[in-house]
Structures are given as C-alpha cells and as structure tokens.
Amino acid sequence: MTRETVRAEIIEEGLRQDILWLLITVYSYLTRAQFKGLSQMSREQFAVDAILLDSAARDIVARLTALDDDTRHNRSFQTLFAAMKREGLDARRAKELDSKVKAYRKTVNELKVSHRNHYIAHVNTNAVITPRVLDDPIPFGKVASMAVNLLDEMVEETVNYIFKVASDHKIDLRKALSAKPEA
Q1: Distances (CA, A) of 179 to 26, 75, 141, 172
Q2: How far is the C-alpha of 58 from the C-alpha of 52, rounded, in Å?
Q3: Res 161: pLDDT
Q4: 73, 64, 67, 163: which is closest to 120 by C-alpha?
Q5: How far, in Å, CA of 51 to CA of 26, rounded?
Q6: Going by C-beta distance under 8 Å and a sequence separation of 6 or more, which residues neighbour residue 156?
Q7: Is 87 exposed, middle or buried (0-12, 13-18, 19+ CB in 10 A)?
C-alpha cells in the first residue's frame, strides 16, 4: 500500500506547531535556567531542576533533529520543500530555499553529532552521562533560531508563535526569546 502525497499546506501547518512547541520548550528552559529562588532551594530541588533542564535540552535537540528528518512521509523542512517543488515552486525560489535548507541541515548535524550521538543515542561505552546544564550547556540557540527563520523564509511571512499559558495570559515567544540570553 502506498501513502498518498501530502500537500505543502498540511506539512507547513504541522511545522508551525512543531516550532511552536520547540520555542515553548526553549522558553521554559531559559526561564528555569535562571534558577530564580536559588537561595531558598534545597539541594534536592536544585538537583531535580538541573535534571529537568537537561531533559528539556534533550527534547530541544530531538525536536531540532526531527525538523531535519529526510525520511519520506515524515514532517520536516525537506518534506515541505519537496511538496512545494511538486506543487510548482518557481526555479529561482527553489534554488534559494535549497541552499537555506542545506545550511540548516549542516548546522543541525553538527549539534546532533556533538550532543545526540555522544550523549543521547549511540553512546560510547565509556561515556559519563550527567546533567550538563551548568558546566557544559548544549548550544542549541543558533540552530533553534535557524529553524524559526527557515520556516519564515519557506512560507514567506514572519510566523507568530504565541504561548497561551491561560485564557488571559499569552506570551509572544519571538519577543520573549529575543530578550533572553541565548542558550
């Protein structure tokens, strides 16, 4: 049985959601990494926060890596790009986007190899796995920014990412993250 071809607009909507959740996790990570109330924390609370931050960093790396998935029928920048070409993307824009998708792939691969392949999956037998948030944080900020900008380029608009914390409390993640120190 063959799968039907998915339209670019369906893939695009999924990628908007993927990046929204990526940014929610980045925002949560950067907020929690400030360790507000550190002087009142117990050692156990501090250790638990460090472990949760490390888990968030793993999730961020996994989400960034998923955006680079070149497996057919998996949602990623490659599948959106392929759908756009299939649906009539003009040659000039195709060439422009192709170079940007390749640049993302190169940058995320460096992160993937340096973190995921040495710390999450394909772990060496002699590797020591401890939370790295304090002494060796994962530098995911550049790749996350590239992902946001790449989707903007692909859809030819600045995508809004709003974190709806409650019905009356919303966070504009672009604005909030531009004000936070980078990861």
Answers
A1: 13, 30, 13, 11
A2: 10
A3: 97
A4: 64
A5: 15
A6: none
A7: exposed
Element (H, E) at 144: helix 141-155
CA–CA separation, 12 vs 81, rounded Å? 10
Separation between Cα atoms, residue 138 and residue 63, nearest integer Å: 14
Q: Which is nearest to 140 in space by CA: 15, 21, 20, 29?
A: 29
Res. 164: pLDDT tops 80 = yes
Name the nearest CA neighbour of 66 among 5, 15, 8: 15
Q: Which residues contact 120 (CB under 8 A, 6 or more apart)?
A: 58, 61, 62
Per-residue pLDDT, averaged over 19-48, amounts to 94
**Per-residue pLDDT for 3 more than 70?**
no
Q: What gap in Å lies between CA 83 and CA 60, rounded to an integer?
A: 25
Closest alpha carbon to 138 in 163, 161, 121, 113: 113
Q: What is the mean pLDDT of residues 55-78?
A: 92
